[in-house]
Q: What sequence folds into this?
């Protein structure tokens, strides 16, 4: 990118002195790239639990330095971003807590918001601000090479601070996401987890299931499933190629809402299944006509 | 497109004198556009059961003429393409049969192949060749405006002739699809219907269901489903926006294979559901890791 174009990008008004990003996979490394681009911090430190990822992070040269332990990463930071799988939250919170200076802002990027309150909040010392966040963006790719600064452009980012959170801390986190091109919304964490159960977690569960069903097919059908995937199946395989550990943790951490939505899905599927079995074309056509409308809503909302 | 580029497109070696396309929606009108481009017939006649579609077809000026009854459309044609929903096959076959000259080739574009054998073959007079076909291509859009000549490029087209079919008739239909950019494969119709049940019909059924489940949500969740659809849901809504009548007929005509695959899906879903309920992260992670592999297969097969 040329220097002229670089200058045109709106910069964050009140940059952090030192931002530490814990977990530098697809989302973490995309956020690092976006933060550099918008001048969100004068210095960005990256840390990842995987040595291979840390090494690659150094080679990519997208951070000012790679920390080799988590205490070094967050020491002196005034912004800490936790971008690990949800299952690591408790250990990460306990490891960083003793090194957080008063006034530091801690945020995360997890796809379920209750774990931030359950696993991070209790460890956070007095005077440190927790602003949980969830950028609704991502591709099916993983790792630091797959990240890119534009990932968040035109996408929503949901922040779920509690009522007592310092509004200025919320605003400084929101400012980074807005600079990265996102629309920021505040939401209750429980409500967030319900909404995402239907818009994201259930579709992923179903895609993972159906792609698994296809891999268990008789050999003579299996090769053809790949060959003729353009007929609908490939959209499911893209979803079902998402990071296995990240998704394991999402399902384990949003169990109740996912199982509730799955129960509703079963009921609706039974209705269509019966219509197919008894040859009830009217029920099928009426249902399929109704589902077109919601797609139009999405196209109009520019999320298509 | 400039004349120079137009000349560079490989033309069909043995063009038909007069091709009639019955049903000029998304697929029919795309095929018309592709056939014109590759010189598949010296004259192309279009017919659609809907008067509004016929009028629009005339305005689009992509056919040499629009027929206002089906007998006129196929009279004197040496190629007839049936591109209607499957539910219209029987009536179309009976309406065209008396007007088919010996040597005429009849083909179709239906997503289930048994109906062509069941509903078209018995009506076809002696000396007329039936070569059922299925281009594995399409978008979620409908109607003659949504068609485009490039729809079939790089996609598979499956032909399901029976053993006694004239090989030259099969070759002439295959030549059109190859000129349109498709890879042509011959297959047994029953086998085709099984493969498509898992790669296409089941994914559509699930997408239709889950989008329906979302539209039945409490009002305060519904708007947010649209807003935050980028998290996985929108891929399902695209699939679930496909033509309702076309899909009604697919499910009614491939009942047994779809219900069989749905039964398998239920079994697999029960395993993941249980893993979520009891917190069995190992089962989830192992399953999600396995499904990544099939996506890689699709990317390698260039169908992604």
A:
């Amino acid at each position: 990118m040329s220097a002229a174009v670089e200058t045109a990008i709106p910069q964050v008004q009140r940059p952090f002195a030192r931002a530490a990003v814990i977990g530098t996979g697809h989302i973490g490394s995309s956020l690092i790239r976006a933060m550099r681009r918008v001048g969100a911090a004068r210095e960005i430190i990256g840390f990842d639990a995987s040595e291979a990822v840390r090494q690659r992070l150094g080679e990519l040269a997208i951070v000012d330095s790679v920390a080799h332990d988590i205490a070094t990463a967050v020491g002196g930071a005034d912004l800490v971003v936790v971008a690990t799988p949800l299952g690591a939250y408790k250990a990460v919170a306990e490891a960083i807590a003793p090194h957080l200076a008063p006034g530091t802002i801690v945020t995360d990027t997890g796809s379920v918001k209750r774990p931030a309150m359950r696993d991070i909040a209790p460890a956070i010392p007095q005077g440190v601000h927790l602003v949980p966040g969830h950028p609704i963006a991502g591709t099916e790719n993983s790792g630091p090479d797959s990240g890119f600064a534009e990932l968040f452009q035109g996408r929503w980012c949901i922040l779920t601070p509690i009522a007592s959170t310092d509004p200025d801390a919320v605003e400084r986190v929101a400012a980074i996401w807005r600079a990265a091109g996102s629309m920021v919304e505040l939401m209750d964490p429980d409500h967030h987890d319900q909404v995402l159960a239907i818009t994201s977690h259930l579709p992923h569960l179903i895609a993972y299931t159906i792609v698994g069903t296809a891999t268990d097919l008789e050999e003579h059908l299996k090769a053809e499933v790949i060959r003729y995937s353009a007929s609908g199946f490939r959209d499911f395989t893209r979803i079902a190629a998402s990071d296995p550990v990240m998704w394991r943790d999402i399902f384990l951490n949003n169990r109740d809402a996912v199982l509730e939505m799955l129960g509703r899905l079963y009921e609706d599927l039974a209705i269509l299944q019966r219509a197919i079995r008894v040859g009830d074309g009217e029920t099928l056509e009426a249902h399929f006509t109704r589902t077109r409308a919601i797609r139009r809503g999405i196209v109009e909302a520019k999320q298509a």
In short: Chain A touches chain B through 92 residues (CB under 8 Å). The first strand of chain A starts at residue 19 and ends at 22.
